[in-house]
Amino acid sequence: MKSQRYVAKVIRSRNHSLGWLLFISHFTVFMTSCTSSTDEAAQFFLRGNVQLQKREYKEAIRFYTEALTKKPDFADAYNNRGLARFRNGDREGALADYTRAIQADPDFATAYLNRAELQLELGEPTGSLADLERISKTYRDSTYYQSRLGDAYTQLNRLAEAKTAYDLALRLDPSNVDALTNRGALYFQQKEFKKAQNDIQKALQLNPKQDAALNNQSLLLAQAGRYAEALSFIDQALLTQPRQPYYQNNKAYFLLKLNRATEVLPLIQESLQLDNQNGWAHRTLGQYYLKMNQPAQAKVEFNKALKLGVPADELTK
Known about the structure:
Keywords: Repeat, TPR repeat. The protein has 18 helices and no strands. The chain is an all-alpha fold.
């Protein structure tokens, strides 16, 4: 969600036990009535789980693939291989595996949840919402599920429904850091800064290293003109996610406001290298060129920012 700079939302939980679900359960029944091939598949699956928990993702993928060779309709192996592939940086492979898990078992709620969350990260909220709605009866009392539902509604600009989902997530668990961070981001977008501040402060009390909350706190401070304090918070966010392009752009913007323009160019160049479709980063680069008395280059960047949706009245703020 991009506001004056960039308000970070937590798209993928790193800590919730329900997020990016590893499926390990229903094999007690499965293994009591095995053929030799399904028994071997189950053994490879369990080995894969061990490697996944050890964060040996390539080995986990290898074992899950062996399990699928023995039992090609093994939905649980597809789901867990998808998780291993995601954690190994292969998002498209993960998406394909979650889909195969669902094809093998159309009632596999865990795979729907994993696919829904991945689609959010890939910027496909319509598909994500469809998956979340498919499993609403199973997970409707889950704070984690309600957080993801709020994220899907936010990406679809259905903001009233997003707030309702975040509110429910927090009623179910007031310590849900993701929901606090994301509702705070929603309040920021709607210029309800006091409510945003309240949620972000609570999120940081619960998890002082939550990078999205640290970023959002920096933007709240910047909105109040407190750029030196904002810089301190964005630096903390970058310690956790040093190559997050939006955080890099926000730091560059704060440095410009603090008249430290000579430090800006490497940050903004890396930010745009990682994501050249962020209009606010082009806006920041345009402002940098103005500071350097290079109006022609500034105009080029401002035009790019306009094409990417930055309002004209925000270009030189």
